[in-house]
Each structure stands twice: as C-alpha cells, then as structure tokens.
UniProtKB/TrEMBL annotation:
<feature type="domain" description="Transcription regulator PadR N-terminal">
    <location>
        <begin position="7"/>
        <end position="80"/>
    </location>
</feature>
<dbReference type="InterPro" id="IPR036388">
    <property type="entry name" value="WH-like_DNA-bd_sf"/>
</dbReference>
<dbReference type="InterPro" id="IPR005149">
    <property type="entry name" value="Tscrpt_reg_PadR_N"/>
</dbReference>
<dbReference type="InterPro" id="IPR036390">
    <property type="entry name" value="WH_DNA-bd_sf"/>
</dbReference>
<dbReference type="Pfam" id="PF03551">
    <property type="entry name" value="PadR"/>
</dbReference>
<protein>
    <submittedName>
        <fullName>PadR family transcriptional regulator</fullName>
    </submittedName>
</protein>
Amino acid sequence: MSVPLTLLGLLEREPSHGYDLKRDYDTLFGRGKPLPFGQVYATLGRLARDGKVVVGEAEPGDGPDRKRYVITDAGATEFETWLGEPVAAEPHLQTVLFTKVVLALMLGRDAERYLDTQRAAHLARMRELTEVKRTGSLVDALLADHGLFHLESDLRWIDLTAARLDALRTEVTSR
C-alpha cells in the first residue's frame, strides 16, 4: 500500500489535520496494522517538501496546535495518475512457498511436511477471515474476501505441488 498516495486521496476529499488523516487511514486501510503517527507526519512533511500538499496555519485545538493539510494541483494530478494505473498482476513466478519446497527437496528434507504445515496455517487464517466476514462491516467483508480468494489459490497450489513432489524432487535434484 502506498501511504503517501493514500494520504493524498484522503486529502483530495477534504483538507484535514494529521490526526484525522491517521484515524481515517486506520479505519479504512490499516486493518491490523495502524499507521504510526510518526509515519503520518513524516509522510506529510515529504509531500509538502515535494509540493504535493501545503500546510495551513496552525489552529488551536485540544493539546498542541494543529495544522490543516491541503492537497495541491500537483498532488491531485499525481493521485489521479496513480488511481488510473492498474495494480501489477500478482503473483510473481518465484514465491516464498515455491522456494521453500524446492530447497527442501534439493537438501533432502521433508517438503511434504512443510506443505502440510503451510496448509494448516492457511486454513487457520481462512477461519479468522471467515469470522471477520461474518461479524464485520462491508469493508471488512470485502477485504476478507480478497484474502480468502488468495489463500484458496495458494491451497490449490499446495495440493497440486504435494501431488507432484516426486516428479519435482527428480527434476531439482538432477541439476
């Protein structure tokens, strides 16, 4: 996730204080990984330095004075360009799952045990995400669906690879 571009998108909606940007980011995008305040303000500082946002006058508030950030035309243009670009098609051909299986086979280790352990971890995460779908908001449910679909794909790959371990062992150990 691109934090700078996400903050620009939130600022395009309306000028905001750093605290409000963090709250909105965490609520909509931070699921389980809230954005640290330091990262919010460091990012806003870089965006201001690069002419993507401007900082308004300090306003009194509860606690220290607060600054309102406003997106500039350059920031809006960058955000619009980013929004229109497709996300890179995943996955890459070399994944950690694949690497571990091949290395286990090359080294004479139990690749099937690794696949079984990975399958169990995927199934546990799928149960967690299914509970999120059942109890969460629509935003939570859609994010959970995205994760579930990826995990289902990985499980299909794990099962296919487990069925082909002997042939794969022969291929990778003959090199």
